[in-house]
Design goal:
The structure is a single chain. The protein is mainly beta. It has a domain of about 140 residues. The strands form 8 sheets. Strands 24, 25, 26, 27 and 28 form a 5-stranded antiparallel β-sheet that branches. Strands 1-31-30-29 form a 4-stranded antiparallel β-sheet, with no helix packed on it. A 4-stranded antiparallel β-sheet has the order 2-3-6-7, with no helix packed on it. A hairpin with a 7-residue loop joins strand 16 and strand 17. The longest helix is centred in the first third of the chain and has 16 residues. It is globular and about 70 Å long.
Length: about 400
């Protein structure tokens, strides 16, 4: 056992020592960024300029490869020319599964009259990888009030959340085929507090979601959604949920914070198999596989317009083993035959706290010398870590070995 622990410690030390020098640095005021499936990075740069004595913000978008070759695909100052003053600040970027398109989420501000009155909004802007707008029907390529937007694996449809209860407490799920300009609600009557998309090209388009009733009463349900067939399957009833829902790169595991200090991991194919660990609430990213995550510690921004990008230190966390509660162990063994991550069991079960083992404290291994960072992401292949520091926010990419 001691030898195993020493080996684990050495592995962590090796990966951390490899991160002391960045492979690439973008010395700009980077507001957000995202890895493409092939390792390219799209990032936005804050751009403020004067127009008719007004301060206008229209962020630029760049794409870079890991060898440092970069291209500006959107020059904000040249966009939206007209008599009306228009500003936008990019909040997030997300690549399509094939790396050919982007969804760009941004806050907008439009001056409505000569007295300086403005109208603010939140939109998703659809672009191809070269920065050309993807029009919706015959109109502009913008979806009003669309959050957590993602291109599905068909390359033609965008899924997104629409606010159903303010301020950002519940949402309904909608889809839109850009070419036809047709918006749909694939799950009528379903309201959720969180969604994590599972968009692996070989497996189609799906999602996990935390379902809540419109009045926030009743059980908290973890559900699986097939976005192609419009099918809903219930996985489990949760004892609690406070945020950070995600699905692992393989699609086999779901993770979320059950409360402010409990990270819970659940097997999608066998939802009775659960692992829990005590760790402070924070943003995290899967490390290219299903074995560990990188978590940002520190104060988390949970306001209605919050991005979760307050500064914190990064640490590696190995996920705990997943086990079925004693009362469910025998029945789980009978059902463990040929279920895949997309073939879902029923019915869901909940178990009393007495059936759980004592909660273990997370064993955290600091990354990047425990320095503070604002945003971070891990490349889909798990080989690179991208971070932005507080203040001027240059983007740095470190190899993970």
């Amino acid at each position: 056992m001691c030898l195993v622990l020493v080996c684990i410690s050495l592995c962590f030390a090796d990966s951390l020592s490899a991160q002391t020098s960045p492979a690439l640095t973008i010395d700009e005021e980077v507001s957000t960024f995202a890895f493409a499936p092939d390792g390219r990075i799209a990032y936005s740069v804050r751009h403020v300029f004067s127009q008719k004595k007004l301060q206008i913000q229209r962020d630029d978008i760049w794409v870079t490869s890991l060898d440092g070759k970069k291209t500006r695909i959107v020059e904000g100052k040249k966009l939206f020319q007209g008599p009306v003053a228009f500003s936008y600040a990019i909040q997030s970027l997300r690549w399509s599964p094939d790396g050919a398109r982007l969804t760009v989420e941004m806050y907008t501000s439009t001056m409505t009259d000569e007295r300086g009155e403005t109208k603010e909004g939140y939109v998703t802007w659809l672009l191809d990888a070269a920065g050309k707008e993807i029009r919706i029907g015959q109109g502009p390529g913008m979806i009003e009030e669309a959050g957590n937007s993602a291109w599905l694996t068909d390359g033609a449809t965008v899924a997104f959340l629409h606010e159903a209860m303010q301020p950002k407490l519940l949402f309904d799920i909608r889809t839109l085929r850009a070419a036809a300009g047709r918006e749909e609600s694939p799950f009528p009557g379903l309201t959720v507090s969180a969604v994590a998309w599972d968009l692996r090209p070989a497996d189609g388009s799906a999602a996990v979601a935390v379902e809540r009733q419109e009045n926030l009463s009743g059980p908290i349900r973890l559900v699986w959604l097939d976005l192609r067939k419009h099918e809903r399957r219930e996985l489990a009833q949760l004892a609690g949920f406070v945020g950070q829902l995600s699905i692992s790169p393989s699609g086999k595991l779901v993770a979320y914070f059950r409360d402010q200090e409990t990270l819970e991991i659940r097997d999608v194919a066998h939802p009775d198999r659960v692992g829990r660990v005590r760790v402070g609430y924070g943003a995290y990213a899967w490390a290219g596989g299903d074995e560990r995550i990188l978590i940002k510690r520190g104060t988390f921004d949970t306001s209605a317009r919050g991005t979760g990008r307050r500064s914190g230190s990064l640490a590696w966390l190995t996920l705990p083993p997943l086990e079925a509660p004693p009362a469910a162990a025998s029945s789980a063994a009978k059902d463990s035959s040929a279920l895949s991550a997309k073939t879902l069991p029923a019915p869901p079960k909940t178990f009393p706290a007495s059936a759980e083992k004592d909660l273990l404290d997370a064993e955290l291994h600091p990354a990047l010398s425990g320095l503070l960072f604002q945003s971070f992401a891990i490349s889909p292949d798990g080989r690179y870590l991208a971070v932005t520091a507080p203040g001027s926010r240059p983007l740095q990419i470190f190899p993970i070995r």
